[in-house]
Amino acid sequence: MVPIFFFSAYVAGKESEAVKGLGTVLDEKIPIESVDLPQNSYIFDHEGRLISEITSKQQNRTYTHYNEIPDVVKTLFIASEDQRFFDHIGFDAAGMLRAVFINARSQEVEQGGSTITQQLARNVYLTHERSYNRKLSELLYSYQLEKNFTKEQILKDYLNTIYFGNGTYGIGTAATSYFNRQLQELHLAELVFISAIPNNPSLYDPIKNFENTKERQERLLKLLFENGIISQKEMEESMNYPITLSKKERVDFHPDYVTFVHQELKQLIAESEGYAKKLQNANDNEQINNELSNRIDHVISQGIIVHTGMDAALQNKLVTAIEKHLPFNEIQGAAAVIDHQSHKIVALSGGKDYEKHAFNRAFQAYRQPGSAIKPLLDFAPYIDLTGATVNSKIDAGAFCKNNYCPKNYSGKNYGMVSLETALKYSYNTAAVRMLDKIGIEKGFSYLKPFGFSSITKDDVQKLATAIGGFTYGVSPLELTSAYTSFGNDGNYYENHAIIKVTDLTGKTLYEWKDKPVRVWKESTNDQMRSLLASVVKSGTGQKATISSDYIGGKTGTSNDYNDLWFVGLTDKYTAGVWVGKDKNGSIRNVYDQGPQMLIWRDTLK
């Protein structure tokens, strides 16, 4: 028996070493290092004005720090919800025992006996299921909260977590939501009024059940008086104080622009955190896209400020111009305006009567560019490679190669003309000859820096692209962005709506790190600016004329008049406008009016 005894003792010793204390097990199973509450995020325009609030996980919450919460609010919630808050270890045994007896008598879970800490645990980590299993979990989470945080931290997080009805979370948000003022600006009566809501947000909904909320407010004022927190005079004055609600609507302006900002934020985070490279190299993009979406949701839930380049005046002018010049049924329009000096997208229109997150034609519609592609694909590369000038001659007569025989718009042949004449009157055969001479692939190599996303391998094989005959086409934002190179001496800079993303304290989290790319020589750019100016001065773009030190641009019309374009620039801005039908169809009836040029003119004049 002696060997057996010693062997058993040895095994028992090893087992005892493996036994862990309750605290260690809870630290492993319920690690709580911080209480992360979803907060609102914000989008600002270039002047620092708020244009859109983003609520995370459908929780409208503006975080309020402990020293920003009036003492009377802290005291009131302790008095009404958890009088032994500063004494217990996360749960109140006496309160729980009382709840057990009541529940046993009714055979239902009618009372929970929850402390403020338990309510915080439930709101942040658990569900509101009324079961003993959830209650046990609640106790364990409460114990961990009390072990890791001070009472002040727990109370602060609780007051930022509780629900105040109508999508409003947290005491600070309730103040701005119901009275449109900061928490510290409220009268005692107003503070107690909003404090009455969380006990039962439906019953005490101040909008639907104002009288119920007022009755509970008066009961809470009496409680404060009975506990010696306020005087009788303060109680009576507060009971008689007029409560006037001033419901604050969530700020959400300029849906065209804001929709793009959401898209660009995804792109910025993807590039900054390596998701973009993973997507390029992965076989299973769905999983990485899900990871990226979760990451974006997390970033937004932490509370961020997205600083943009939006110019509210230009944005309003653009939207107004599109509505004014496109009163026709089924005919839509889209446009982009870029400050090519700062490389900021300052205005976007996704279409008439645009609604947030709907199909945004400015960056999601890919349309045939027609002759608007000629300066980028034909003229600039031709001048750059051959040294031609605005006065150099090109044949605008009949052209036919490999059964491709394009015609000029008028149906006429013009013989030898200057490059200036060829562009300002948009002769197709001249443009096709230029691309044929330098080679299609060489011409397309000049488009690579612009990042046109829908160019196909077939496009690089056919001469029809010289006059806009693409498989899918380009978006208004892509084409406008490419034209900014004419405003930057032949250099191309990526253009963005987002300048930077910061946290709520102003610390920069994300910003673009783009570098310029030289597309063509500066001398080529000088020739192109002269050519583009002639289009507006005496060519097809005259309706776009405005008073400016410089103005140049190019019109474009696709086959059967399905698409009308004008893309042009001043010394400061580059803007592009597309007009057409969502489902291809001729708009020949509005061609002579030149609505695309009128929209451009009215936006930038």
UniProtKB/TrEMBL annotation:
InterPro entries recorded = Beta-lactam/transpept-like (IPR012338), Glyco_trans_51 (IPR001264), Glycosyltr_51/Transpeptidase (IPR050396), Lysozyme-like_dom_sf (IPR023346), PBP_transglycosylase (IPR036950), PCN-bd_Tpept (IPR001460)
In its UniProt record, which GO terms are filed under biological process? Answer: cell wall organization; peptidoglycan biosynthetic process; proteolysis; regulation of cell shape
- Catalytic activity of the protein: [GlcNAc-(1->4)-Mur2Ac(oyl-L-Ala-gamma-D-Glu-L-Lys-D-Ala-D-Ala)](n)-di-trans,octa-cis-undecaprenyl diphosphate + beta-D-GlcNAc-(1->4)-Mur2Ac(oyl-L-Ala-gamma-D-Glu-L-Lys-D-Ala-D-Ala)-di-trans,octa-cis-undecaprenyl diphosphate = [GlcNAc-(1->4)-Mur2Ac(oyl-L-Ala-gamma-D-Glu-L-Lys-D-Ala-D-Ala)](n+1)-di-trans,octa-cis-undecaprenyl diphosphate + di-trans,octa-cis-undecaprenyl diphosphate + H(+); Preferential cleavage: (Ac)2-L-Lys-D-Ala-|-D-Ala. Also transpeptidation of peptidyl-alanyl moieties that are N-acyl substituents of D-alanine
* Chief place of localization: membrane
Task: Output one GO MF annotation.
Answer: penicillin binding
- Pfam families tied to this protein: Transgly (PF00912), Transpeptidase (PF00905)
* Source organism (scientific name): Metabacillus sediminilitoris
Q: What is this protein called?
A: Penicillin-binding protein
Give Gene Ontology CC terms: outer membrane-bounded periplasmic space; plasma membrane
Q: Where is the Penicillin-binding protein transpeptidase domain?
A: 333-574
Q: Does the keyword Protease apply?
A: yes
Q: What compartments host this protein?
A: Cell membrane
The record ties this protein, via SUPFAM superfamilies, to: beta-lactamase/transpeptidase-like, Lysozyme-like
List all membrane-crossing ranges.
none
Q: Which Gene3D superfamilies match?
A: Biosynthetic peptidoglycan transglycosylase-like, DD-peptidase/beta-lactamase superfamily
Q: What is the lineage of its organism?
A: Bacteria, Bacillati, Bacillota, Bacilli, Bacillales
The Glycosyl transferase family domain, residue ranges: 48-222
